[in-house]
Amino acid sequence: MSPEDLQTLMSEKLANCQVTVENDGHTYHITVVGEVFEGLNAVKRQQHVYGALNEKIADGSVHAVSIKTYTPAQWAAQ
User: Fold this and answer.
1) Spatial contact of 12 and 23, defined as CB atoms under 8 Å apart
2) Could you tell me which of 75, 78, 56 has the C-alpha nearest to residue 65?
3) Would you say 49 and 67 are in contact if contact means Cβ atoms under 8 Å apart?
4) What is the CA radius of gyration of the chain?
5) What pLDDT score was predicted for residue 50?
6) Residues 6+ apart with CB under 8 A from 78
7) Element spanning 28, H or E
8) DSSP 8-state symbol, 36
9) What would the pLDDT profile of 46-58 be if each residue is shown by its tens digit?
10) Phi then psi for 9, rounded to 5 degrees?
11) Taken in order 56, 61, 63, 66, is the CA torsion positive or negative?
12) What does the alpha-carbon distance between residue 73 and residue 78 come to, in Å, rounded to a whole number?
């Protein structure tokens, strides 16, 4: 699966979030920025993103991922 296709899929499933996907040949590096992460701990944030990925992980299209999640305020502070 291309990074662009995965980015499109995740953008559809994670409405109102900004999603960026890059692939280094082995791992998809996924960055998601959204207000949905306000007040959530790191585990809950990861679970939210994995919820959008489960189908592709299950069918083998995606297997290695690195996920970074931010609220808009956290992203702006970088």
Assistant:
1) no
2) 56
3) yes
4) 12
5) 95
6) 70
7) strand 28-33
8) G
9) 999 999 999 999 9
10) -60, -45
11) negative
12) 9
Collapse the DSSP code of 77 into the 3-class scheme (helix H, G, I; strand E, B; otherwise coil) and give the result.
coil
Question: All domains of the chain, ordered by start, with CATH?
Answer: 3-73 (3.30.300.90)
How far the first Cα of the chain sits from its last, in Å, is 29
User: Structure pTM?
Assistant: 0.92
Q: How far, in Å, CA of 77 to CA of 22, rounded?
A: 22
Q: Are 20 and 30 in contact (CB under 8 A)?
A: yes
33 vs 59: CA distance, rounded Å: 26
Are 57 and 20 within 8 A, CB to CB? Answer: no
Structure tokens at 27: 């791992």
